[in-house]
């Protein structure tokens, strides 16, 4: 028991001494190391903020004739410490009590205070971006629905849906009517497949920029782990592709986005899987066919024919024009 107590006390003292030593070095570096910040600026400890500011500009002016980057860093650090009321108060206490544990608390409190200010600023910016994103999404949705409302089939479907879901629609207040009509227009547009992009879907909490930034580290880690797993499983161990990975390879080869793939029926997916694009030979053959189709499409295009004619005449022609 005595040995255990002695060992615990020894470890505790070592840890405390190391921690104190670490914080002492940090605090010294945070202020002016072994020099006195007041002496660097040439002012007394009772100097006012205006006196400190004047001394700071005077020291910088004197440096212009004989520039010294290290001396300038010391002057800037001394001014940073003394110009701020909070850090000056901490520094005055540090000068009187250099070995006090409260110097560590003051240093930690100042760092946390600065960190909280940065976090608050980032949160405000994040919410402003989210607000802009939300209203921009609403505007884009409304603009697209207005374009679709000119379609007779679309208008008819909207009216039928309103009549079936809201029999008392005519008795609603104007604001309620407008909201019901907008919701059903968006619903009908999505069901009719007139909105293909994911960004055109109803705004979700996970679409917020701030949420995406918060989950970004997790996504990066998952992406790296997924690639490592793919490399080991299929390139080193040469195992057979799983069903989910076969779907992934097929979707990538056909250049179909994830939301478009999810919208396909099971029969369509099975038809595409019959191509067996995860097989290396079939995949290479497929890409060659695609390149040949692109080449033939280019040859048959009017721009290509114009290019050939102009080349024969000796004129330059940019195909991308």
Automatic annotation (TrEMBL):
BP-aspect Gene Ontology terms: protein folding
Protein name (record): J domain-containing protein
Gene3D superfamilies given in the database record: DnaJ domain (1.10.287.110)
Transmembrane residue ranges: 107-135
Cellular component GO terms, alphabetical: endoplasmic reticulum membrane
Organism expressing this protein natively: Plasmodium cynomolgi (strain B)
Signal peptide annotation: 1-21
Lineage, top ranks: Eukaryota, Sar, Alveolata, Apicomplexa, Aconoidasida
Classification via InterPro entries: DnaJ_domain, DNAJC25-like, J_dom_sf
Keyword presence, Iron: no
Subcellular location: Membrane
Membrane topology: Multi-pass membrane protein
Domain J residue range list: 36-95
Annotated PANTHER family: DNAJ HOMOLOG SUBFAMILY C MEMBER 25
Keywords associated with the record: Chaperone, Membrane, Signal, Transmembrane, Transmembrane helix
């Amino acid at each position: 028991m005595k040995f255990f107590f002695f060992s615990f006390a020894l470890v505790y003292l070592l840890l405390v001494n190391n921690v104190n030593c670490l914080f002492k070095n940090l605090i010294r570096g945070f202020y002016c190391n072994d020099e006195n910040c007041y002496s660097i600026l040439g002012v007394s400890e009772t100097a006012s903020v205006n006196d400190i500011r004047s001394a700071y500009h005077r020291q910088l002016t004197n440096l212009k004739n004989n520039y010294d980057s290290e001396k300038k860093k010391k002057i800037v650090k001394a001014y940073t410490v003394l110009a701020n009321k909070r850090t000056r108060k901490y520094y005055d206490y540090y000068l009187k009590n250099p070995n006090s544990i409260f110097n560590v608390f003051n240093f930690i409190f100042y760092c946390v205070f600065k960190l909280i200010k940065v976090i608050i600023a980032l949160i405000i910016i994040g919410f402003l971006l989210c607000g802009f994103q939300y209203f921009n999404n609403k505007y884009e949705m409304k603009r697209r629905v207005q374009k679709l409302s000119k379609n007779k089939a679309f208008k008819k479907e909207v009216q039928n849906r309103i009549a079936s879901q809201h029999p008392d629609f005519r008795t609603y207040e104007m604001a309620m009517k407008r909201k019901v009509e907008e919701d059903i227009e968006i619903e009908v547009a999505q069901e009719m497949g007139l909105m293909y992009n994911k960004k055109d879907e109803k705004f979700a909490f996970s679409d917020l920029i701030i949420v995406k930034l918060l989950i970004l580290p997790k996504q990066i880690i998952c992406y790296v782990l997924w690639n490592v797993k793919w490399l080991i499983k299929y390139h080193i161990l040469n195992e057979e592709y799983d069903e989910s990975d076969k779907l992934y390879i097929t979707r990538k080869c056909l250049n179909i986005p994830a939301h478009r793939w999810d919208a396909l029926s099971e029969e369509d997916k099975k038809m595409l899987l019959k191509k067996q694009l995860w097989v290396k030979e079939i995949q290479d053959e497929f890409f060659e066919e695609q390149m040949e189709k692109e080449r033939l499409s280019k040859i048959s295009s009017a721009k290509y024919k114009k290019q050939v004619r102009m080349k024969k005449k000796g004129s330059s022609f940019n195909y991308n024009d």
